[in-house]
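Let us work through a complete example step by step.
Step 1: write down the sequence.
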Amino acid sequence: MTMLITVQYFASVREARGEASDSIELPDDADTPVLLNALRAGPLATLDDALFDRLLVAVNQSVVSGAIRLSADDEVALFPPMTGG
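Step 2: predict the structure and record it as tokens.
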């Protein structure tokens, strides 16, 4: 079985993609690395590798690292590292 995950893009990721979001079909047992691999091979294939490797991933409005299991109702957002000044 599969689930549909909606991914929201912010800042330079949105600009590079030219879209605010995408819906990605993933296996029911997918985690964040599976999602990132699907995005790298699909909608974000043209994103600069250096930027892609530094993307921050938020699941349900909390920045996560490592492998987090996803559910169909999760809110996922990708954005570049932020700097302050």
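Step 3: interpret the result. The helical segments are 11-17, 32-41, 49-52.
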